[in-house]
Design goal:
By secondary structure, the chain is mainly alpha-helical. It has 11 helices and 4 strands. Helix content is about 70%, strand content about 5%. A hairpin with a 6-residue loop joins strand 1 and strand 2.
């Protein structure tokens, strides 16, 4: 391969010098329709020689690489292609994480609210929803949430799982809006029930968790401890998935950058 490239370089040099005929002397004027151009023969020859020497040095430079640099370059290409594929898959998951959080955040400060004290569910609630949620709003949503059978019977979703009785997020939110519950509380309630496992929930899980929330709720409007625990579980899954994904991407790109520096920027 190197011999072929050297041959191509030699042809290019020969072609360059071929523009000068043997009868043309240094500094001879060649007529042109636009203007007279002086073609310095010595300058062209020296430039061609410099190009030839530089190209030859570049082609032969790999022979002088140390084993460590060669190994680093091999690692770089391996990390680059393998890491790019894995990194692309990871980056593609980020919009899905932000999409769910964005829908809930957009619902904040909309609709009616019962006011009162904010739900005490730890710092992750504010991190994920970027807002506080009234404990009374959550208690009201728990009390008014319809059964899984009712939601499924009125579902307009074409999702296969929804056709089998599973509760889809959109169907749940639609029914809760018709009952006049606080929009953010609706999202928070569904998130606690789903535990971060997707946009569909088993009807058995839905009914069991809803019954537990109602049973654990106090007459003063306090939310059941089981609800707070499920909500924190959901938040831990979402926030942990985001932080873990970002960490893996940084490690991935770090390997690529380190191998690239060792292989191409260090002295051979």
């Amino acid at each position: 391969m190197k011999n072929l490239l050297l041959a191509l370089v030699a042809v290019a040099v020969s072609t360059t010098t071929a523009f000068l005929t043997p009868t043309q002397t240094a500094g001879r004027t060649i007529s042109s329709s636009a203007r007279d151009v002086i073609l310095p023969t010595d300058f062209v020859s020296s430039t061609a020689d410099a190009f030839h020497d530089g190209a030859t040095s570049l082609l032969l430079s790999d022979e002088a690489l140390s084993p460590a640099v060669e190994a680093a370059r091999q690692k770089f290409w391996f990390y680059f292609f393998a890491g790019s594929g894995a990194g692309g898959i990871g980056i593609a998951q980020l919009p899905a994480i932000f999409r769910d959080a964005s829908a809930a955040r957009n619902a904040a400060n909309t609709g009616s609210s019962l006011g009162g004290e904010a739900l005490d569910a730890g710092p992750l609630l504010r991190v994920y929803y970027n807002n506080e949620i009234s404990a009374k709003d959550v208690g009201n949503a728990i009390a008014k949430a319809p059964s899984s059978e009712y939601i499924s019977s009125r579902s307009q979703s074409k999702n296969y799982m929804a056709s089998k009785g599973y509760i889809e997020r959109r169907d749940f939110i639609k029914e809760m809006e018709e009952k006049g519950c606080n929009p953010l509380a609706n999202y928070v309630l569904y998130d606690a029930i789903s535990a971060g496992k997707g946009d569909v929930v088993s009807p058995v899980v839905y009914d069991d968790k809803l019954a537990a929330y109602r049973e654990g709720s106090l007459s003063d409007g306090s939310v059941a401890g089981s609800f707070v625990g499920d909500l924190n579980g959901f938040l831990a899954v979402k926030v942990g998935a985001f932080l873990g994904l970002v960490f893996c991407l940084l490690v991935d790109f770090g390997f690529i950058a380190n191998a690239g520096i060792e292989g191409f920027l260090s002295q051979p």
